[in-house]
Specification:
The protein is α+β, with helices and mostly antiparallel strands. It has four helices and five strands. The longest helix is centred in the first third of the chain and has 17 residues, at 2-18. The model is unreliable at 1-17 (pLDDT under 50).
């Protein structure tokens, strides 16, 4: 039992440590800019695909391949990009208590290079609270688009 627990924990760590399944969606601005969220000195510009917006409006789960892009501005400067992407089976790399459905998260620097010091775990744990909305905080804004 201890060996299986260790192997399971090592597998989860390995998936987080690699942090390479989510790639930067180069054409994200060809999608839909559906919300601007202001929180203190942080401004978030949110984008997704027309298919994701349509699924949200219908009340359906987001389709496989959905991404949500967040441009994170501090003051008027781009601080980072954060991407969440949904792929069938991605959640299986994580324990039931750690996953956010089949979503994974990845942070990118303003030059679009991956931020390997972040592994998406912090994002994943926060988004767990939105399980009833397919793990997306801004689904209401998508429905209003």
């Amino acid at each position: 039992m201890a060996i299986l627990t260790f192997i399971g924990a090592a597998s989860v760590w390995q998936a987080w440590a690699e942090n390479d399944r989510v790639q930067f969606p180069e054409n994200y601005k060809n999608g839909v800019h559906y919300a601007t969220v202001n929180r203190g000195g942080v401004r978030e510009e949110l984008y997704s695909s027309p298919e994701a917006i349509a699924a949200a409006k219908r009340g359906d789960p987001f389709p496989d391949g959905t991404f949500i892009m967040m441009e994170d501005y501090r003051g008027d400067q781009l601080h980072q990009y954060v991407v969440m992407e949904k792929r069938k089976g991605w959640g299986e790399a994580y324990s039931e208590s750690a996953r956010a459905g089949d979503w994974e998260f990845r942070e990118f620097a303003p030059d679009r290079s991956p931020n390997m010091s972040e592994n998406g775990q912090r994002c994943m744990s926060c988004h767990q609270s939105e399980a009833d909305q397919d793990f997306v905080f801004t689904i209401d804004q998508m429905r209003e688009e």
